[in-house]
Amino acid sequence: MNDHRWRTVDIVVASILAVTFGVIFWAWGLLWNGPAGAIFGATFPPAAAAIYGVWLLPAVLAPLIIRKAGAGIYTELVAAIVSALLGTSWGISVLWYGLAEGAAGELGFALGGYKRWGLGQSLIASVLAGLTAAGLDLYYYYADWQTDWKLAYVGIVVASTVLFAGIGGHYLTKALAGTGVLDRFPSGRARDLV
Hints:
194 residues, mainly alpha
C-alpha cells in the first residue's frame, strides 16, 4: 500500500459495505435470538456461535477490498451503528463491539504491514476478530458458563469467523475482482494476487 490517504471512492465503497452489513447485522440478530437460540438454547448454547462469523465479515472484507489502514475499523463500526439505529436487541453496546472487532481485524492486516492481502493474512485477521468477539461475549454475557462451554464457545466463534470472514472474505474479494467492479482498487487491478 503506497498511498495511505483515503480517496472519495474508498469512503463511498466502505460506507456502502457498512450500511449493507448494518442491515445484515440487524437481520442476523433476529436469527440469533430466534431460530438459533431456540434450536441450541435448550441443548448446547455455545453451538449457536456457528453463525457468528457473519458479524465479523466487514472487519476482514473491507481491508481486502480497499487496502487502506482503517478500513476494517470504519466499516465494522459504521455497520454496528446502522444495526443499532435499526433497533438491534443489544442496543448501543454493539458500538463497542464494532469498534473492538474492527480494530482486531485491522490488526491482522497491520501485522502484515498493509502489504499482504492473501488468504493467510485474511485468516490471521479473522482469528483475531473472532477471539475478540468471543472474549467480549464471555465477559459481558456468559461469565457464569462452565469452563468447557466457554472453551467450546471460543472455538466455535473463531471457526465460524475463519469460515465466513477469513475464507469467505478472501474468495468474495476474488470473485468481485474477477467481475471488474473493483478495477478502481488495487484489489481489482491485481486479480491474480488477491
